[in-house]
Amino acid sequence: MTHSSAAFANQIRFLLQSLNEENADHVFEELREVEAIFASLFKYIFDRPNFCTIFCQSLRSTAISERFLENLSNTLHFSACEKIGIGLALLDSEHLEFRTCGKNFCMAQIEELCANPVPMKSVEQIQNIIMYLHQAEGLYPLLDSFIQMLSLVHLERGASFVLAPLLSDELRKANLLGDLDLFCESRENDFDAILAEMEKERNVDNIMMELGYGCTVNALQCKEILCLFLPLTEATISRLLGTVARTQAGLGDNQNTFVESLSALGSNSLSELPLLSSWNIEILIDSVKQLAPGTNWIGVIEKLDHEGFYVPNYDAFSFLMAAYRHACPDQFPLHAICGSVWKNVQGQLSFLKYAVSAPPEIFTFAHSARQLAYVDAVYGHKFQLGHANHAWLCLDLLSVLCQLAERGHGSSVQSMLEYPLKHYPEILLLGLAHINTAYNVLQYEVSSIAFPLIVGNSMGNGMILHLWHVNPDLVLRGFVDVHIIDPNNMTRILDICKELKMKNRGE
To answer: Fewest CB within a 10 Å sphere: which of 225, 231, 287, 456?
Structure first.
C-alpha cells in the first residue's frame, strides 16, 4: 500500500512539474485518469472491515478540516451515504482533532441527507448512523429526523427489516400500504415470479394428507380447503391429483384434524360430519372446476412429472384415471407419460406398470399417434383387438421403455414385458424392431427370446420377412442367436433365407 501511494505521488508530482502550455491538455487528461483510479481504489477499501484504520493512518501527517473532507468527497464523487461513512470512520481515530472533525462533518452530512432524502443501499451504513445518533448526546431530534427520512425513501431488501422496529405504528402502516401499492403496480412478469415463489412454498401434499378425506365431505368444505392453494395452477392441481391418488386408501382417520382446521377457518358447519374411507373424487374435481374454470386438464397431466408422484398399486391408478375422466372428456394425453423419460423416473415407471396391464375401459393406448400396423397374416389370431388396451402396439411406449432400460431400470421394464413375452412375443419383437436407441439393449434381449420361437414355428416365415423389411440388422442378429443355441438350426436358417430371397424378387 505504501509503495502504491508513493508511485501515485511521484506520478502526480511529475505531471505537475512538466506542465506547460503545449502539454496542458495531455497533463489534465492524465490527472483525470489518476483521479479515476484513485477513486476506484478508495471506494474498494471503503467496504473493507479495516477501512477506519487505513483511512486514519493515511491522514496522520495531514491537517484535516471539514473543508478538506468536503473537497475530498467531491473530488472522488462520493454519494451522500459515503460522505457520512467518511465522518463515521474518523470517529474511531486516536486523535481528538480527527474525531471532532469527523463528528462535525458527519452531522452536517446527516442534516443535508434529512433535508434532501436519497435512496440508501447499505444496511450496514444505516445501522451505523442510527447507532451513532442513538449514542451521541443531544442528537435525539436528529435521530427522529433521520428515521423519518428513511421511511420516505426506497430501501434495499433487508434494510426495511432492520428499520421496522424503530418505526412508529403509523410509519409501519404507511410502509405496508406502500408495499401493497408497489405490488399492485408491478409488471406482469414480476407478478408471475411472485406467484412462482408462492407456489414453491406451498405444500399441498402434506396439508391434504393431514386434513384427510374429510376435505371432500361436501362441496362447501372442499372449496374452503382448496382456497388455501389459490391460485389453482396446473402444477398445483397436478400435485393435488397425485396426492389423492397415492393416498386413496389407508390414510387413516384424520377427522379431528379436519374439524380443528375448519374451526380455524371460521366454519360453522361442523356438526355430524360423515366419516369417509377415501377421497370423494367427484366433489374434489367439481370444486377445482369451480375455483379454476379455465383449467387445461391435459396440461395438468403433463405436469405429473413432479417430485413425490408415485402410483403405489392398481387401485391408486384406477382412482387417478377416474379423476381424469370426471375432469376432462378428452382422451388421455399419452405423450405426457410415454413421450420422453421423466425427471421423476420412479413415478413414470409406477404409472406405466399399471397402464400396460389395465383393461381398456380403465386405460387404453388405442389412440396413440404412432401405432404398429395390425396385420392378420402376420399375427394370426393371437391378438384380439377387442380384448386388450393396445399397449404393445404403441411405438411411443416401446420407445420410452427402451430408453428406461438403458438408463439402469432394466429390471422394472422386464417385469412389464413378462406378459407379452409369454403370450405374443412376435408382436412385441415386431414393435421393438421399429425402435432404435443408443445400445438397443431391450431390443436384443427380447429378440434373444422371441426370435428362436419364430424360427422354430413353421408358420413364422411371414413374420421374419416383415421383420426384415423393418430392421434387417435385428434379423441377422436373431439368426446368429439361433445358431449359437443350436448349430443344427443352420439348415432352417438357410431355408428361411432362400424363401426371403424369393419373396423379395416377387415383390
So the answer is: 231
Dist. CA 159–CA 153, nearest whole Å: 11
CA 413 to chain centre: 28
pLDDT on residue 88: 76
- The one-letter amino acid at 403: Q
Q: Which residue has the higher pLDDT, 433 or 141?
A: 433
Decide: 240 and 288 in contact? Cβ < 8 Å: yes
Which residue, chain included where needed, has cell 381424469? 324
Torsion of CA 434, 437, 439, 440, to 10 degrees: -20
Q: What angle do CA 464, 465, 470 make, to 5 degrees?
A: 95
Give yes or no for a contact between 291 and 223, defined as CB atoms under 8 angstroms apart: yes
How many CB atoms within 10 Å of residue 83? 23
What is the signed CA dihedral for 99, 101, 102, 108, rounded to 10 degrees?
140
Closest Cα to residue 62, out of 72, 52, 73?
A: 72
392 within 8 A of 352, measured Cβ to Cβ: no
Enumerate the β-bridge partners of residue 394: 371
Contacts of 227 (CB under 8 A, 6+ apart): 291
In angstroms, the Cα distances linking 202 to 206, 225, 239, 240, 306 are: 9, 13, 11, 12, 14
Residue 214 CA: distances (Å) to CA of 181, 247, 319: 38, 13, 17
Phi, psi at 95, each rounded to 5°: -90, 130
> C-alpha cell of 474?
435385428
Q: What is d(CA 27, CA 412) in angstroms, rounded to the nearest whole number?
A: 79
Q: Report, in angstroms and rounded to the nearest whole number, the Rg of the chain calculated over CA atoms.
A: 39
Q: 137: Cβ–Cβ under 8 A, 6 or more apart, which residues?
A: none
Cell of 54: 487505513
- Measure the CA–CA gap between 450 and 485, rounded to whole angstroms: 13
One-letter amino acid for residue 482 of the chain: V
pTM, two decimal places = 0.58
Q: In this structure, how many other beta carbons lie within 10 angstroms of the beta carbon of residue 414?
A: 15
What is the distance between the alpha carbons of residues 123 and 121, in angstroms, rounded to a whole number? Answer: 6
Dist. CA 167–CA 173, nearest whole Å:
10
CB contact at 8 A, 450 and 429: yes
d(CA 425, CA 386): 19
Give Cα separations from 155 to 21, 118, 130 (angstroms). 49, 10, 15
- The 10s digit of each residue's pLDDT in 242-301 is 999 999 988 765 544 554 555 554 554 544 556 778 899 999 999 999 999 999 999 999
- 3 state DSSP class of 155: strand
Residue 416 has pLDDT above 90, yes or no: yes
Give per-residue pLDDT as tens, 152-178: 555 554 455 445 554 545 444 455 444
Instruction: Tell whether omega for the bond before 231 is within 30 degrees of 0, i.e. cis.
Output: yes
* Cα distance between residue 149 and residue 143, in whole Å: 10
